[in-house]
């Protein structure tokens, strides 16, 4: 497995902070800040689509 390159943390309101990362094999990662060793992973395309859907409001019913 390639090394994960983590972005700077993104924090919403309060302490809801997470990080996005990628590796050299085209995989994308999401983790809670401070728990980067417990991540979710998928392809970069899947992460890109997830972010687009969230921005489009498709996950608003979860909030």
Task: Write up this protein.
This is DUF397 domain-containing protein. It comes from Streptomyces mauvecolor. This protein has one domain. It is 19% helix and 32% strand. It has one helix spanning 44-55; strands spanning 5-6, 10-11, 17-22, 27-32, 40-43. Strands 1, 2, 3, 4 and 5 form a five-stranded antiparallel beta sheet that branches. The chain is flat. The model has no long low-confidence stretch (mean pLDDT 88).
Counting DSSP E segments of at least 2 residues, the number of strands comes to 5
State mean pLDDT (0 to 100 scale): 88
Number of helices: 1
- Total domain units: 1
Helical fraction = 10-25%
Name the helix and strand elements from N-terminus to C-terminus, one letter apiece.
Answer: EEEEEH
Unreliable runs: none
Beta-strand residue fraction:
25-35%
Protein name: DUF397 domain-containing protein
